[in-house]
Design goal:
The protein is mostly helical and 336 residues long. 78% of the residues lie in helices and 0% in strands.
Length: 336
């Protein structure tokens, strides 16, 4: 059965929710959510406890929205560029984990909670806003759209393995519960979201579908901000006990961005990628899927807010980094 051609609008560089100005606004929104949530949690701990009961509902909403954005049909249109897809996959799921593990081991040795937070943040390539930055930097955003389902499905399948590798001696995870968590929180929402998207592609007018997908993209930052607000309001008392280590977290994230850029540039030269693909490779190696990792981690590793805070911090640092990377890629393209 051939699926109808589905608009890329909400899942590629045309998505207004993930242009550079929108990403900057989202970063401001997330900071406001952190400040307001922290203030409420410190001033009224009871209110924070009440908000904690709503975290699961917000997580499910965000996961469902992220899965609705995923465009499976984009993969089939990219088969003619299988070499780039293979390079990008190996870079994201073989080289980047090695880079992340090395950095985390050097920066936070002997601190399993911070190590787990950094690794979870480092390991998952972005599936949304990196395409907006790719387009603005002159990269191949259409090819990048095909990376979204590949990256998303791969990171979901690998997440249990990552947990086992990087937390197996820490006692943070109940591994026996992982299959049930995966099925309930991710497999079922993924199937339901894609069924909805395919049904709309068959039944709804194209403009209505595009408008719906654009609305989904606009809603994700708001739901993510609500989740951040709830997390900080509920767990600020535990988070403040680890604030002294965030300078090292900042160093680790900076080193990660620097090394992924160097490795990405080396791969592009080695495989003689054309400039649009070089830009795309640099962007996909740099941008991380913090929203989904935040949701996965909150479910798989409950009551560890410091891990969640590390992921949120990495996300805030990432947006200005992608802006700077976009400018660097434009200058590099103009110089060639």
């Amino acid at each position: 059965m051939n699926l109808p051609d589905q608009p890329v609008l909400s899942a590629d560089a045309k998505n207004k929710a993930w242009t550079e100005p929108a990403a900057a606004k989202a970063a401001v929104l997330f900071i406001i959510a952190i400040v307001l949530g922290s203030g409420l949690g410190l001033a009224a701990p009871r209110a924070g406890e009440v908000l904690a009961h709503g975290i699961d509902a917000t997580l499910l909403a965000m996961i469902s929205l992220l899965f609705i954005e995923m465009r499976l049909g984009a993969v089939f249109k990219a088969f003619g560029k299988i070499r780039f897809l293979a390079i990008a996959w190996c870079a994201n799921f073989i080289l980047v984990p090695v880079i992340g593990f090395t950095i985390a081991s050097l920066v936070v040795p002997g601190q399993p909670i911070l190590f787990a937070g950094l690794m979870i943040y480092f390991l998952a390539p972005c599936t949304d806003w990196f395409l907006g930055f790719t387009r603005m930097a002159g990269g191949d955003a259409e090819l990048g759209a095909s990376l979204i389902p590949i990256n998303l499905i791969t990171q979901l399948l690998l997440f249990p393995l990552w947990l086992w590798l990087f937390t197996k001696h820490s006692g943070l995870v109940d591994f026996e519960a992982i299959p049930g968590i995966f099925a309930h929180w991710f497999l079922l929402p993924l199937l339901a979201a894609q069924a909805l998207r395919i049904s709309l592609a068959y039944l709804a007018p194209e403009k209505l579908l595009e408008g719906f997908l654009d609305w989904v993209g606009q809603l994700i930052p708001l739901v993510l901000a609500a989740l951040i607000f709830q997390i900080f309001a509920s767990y600020i008392g535990m988070i403040v006990t680890g604030l002294d280590v965030f300078a090292r977290i900042a160093l680790a994230v900076f080193l990660f961005f620097a090394l992924t850029f160097v490795v990405g540039a080396a791969l592009a030269r080695r495989w003689e990628l054309p400039p649009p693909q070089r830009t795309l490779l640099s962007m996909t190696m740099a941008a991380r899927n913090a929203p989904l990792m935040l949701a996965l981690t909150a479910i798989a590793i409950p009551n560890q807010p410091l891990i969640l805070a590390v992921i949120v911090f990495g996300m805030l640092v990432e947006i200005p980094h992608l802006t700077a990377l976009k400018q660097l890629m434009l200058k590099t393209r103009d110089a060639t």
